[in-house]
Amino acid sequence: MTVTDRLLNAAFTYAPRLPDGLVRAACAFAADVAWLIRGSGVKQLEKNLLRIRAANPATVSKASRTAMRNYFRYYAEALRLGAYSKEQIDARVSVVMSEEARRDIADGSTLLALGHLGNWDLAGAWGSRHLAPVLTVAEHLSPEELFRAFVKLREDAGMTIIALERGSRVFPQLLRHSRANHHLVCLLADRDLSHTGLPASLCGQPARVAAGPAALSLAAKIPLYFVGIRHVRLTGQARRAAGSPWGIELEFTGPLTTAASGSEGIADLTAQWTAAMSHYLERYPLDWHMLQPVFDADLDLARVRAKQEGAA
Length: 312
Prior knowledge:
two-stranded antiparallel ribbon; seven-stranded mixed β-sheet; alpha/beta; single chain; 9 strands
């Protein structure tokens, strides 16, 4: 287990017992340290911010520091998710959604395409109580203790987790669950280097994203929405009820529909949710904590094509 793994493992143990403000301050400090060290993640974050025109070369350093603080705020909130009361969670979450979206979710399984934006764990804890039980996927990473800690955190918040094992396929499980039960299926989809990754456009730049949301929406015949999540400042009674100066806002776009089927339908729906995400990133770019390559200009496309051909 690396030093980082040990620190995270300790954080899962002790963060729920510590004051919320202390955990937030510690994570903000850790964000600044990571930003100052300027490892590969911070450098890639800056490349991504430049590609979505969130900054220019003269301002990208300042922008990446803010984005890193937003990213580590996610950890501060996730580590203490089990310590929050239902009332505190409710006070921290606001939603922008149409009556049509509410009807779709009430009527049956609904699929949400998400980006690495805001705090999807806090959103999932709220959504499982107020909308429908959340079903999602978690990549099975090492070490096992940390993976189990993240899964337990989400399951304790009412979510159902399907583990993505190396070389395995979760699509059949998602399809079965979506058809058999009433779920809010939430898929992080703004980065995918597997053999199913699809070419897309994010803020006018060629990128690779997951085919899962579009493919599952068509196969299960369930509505598809893009949901943006951002941190928002809380004031007054909302801040007192939340026990925090920060909350999140969920913004639903959709339903996204297509008359096409098969690969054409998947491509069409993918283009629609990535267009919705691009519009969202144009407004709230610093809530996107993407520290890995997603744009074609930063990828080894020959390696990606080899993966696709090997899986064909």
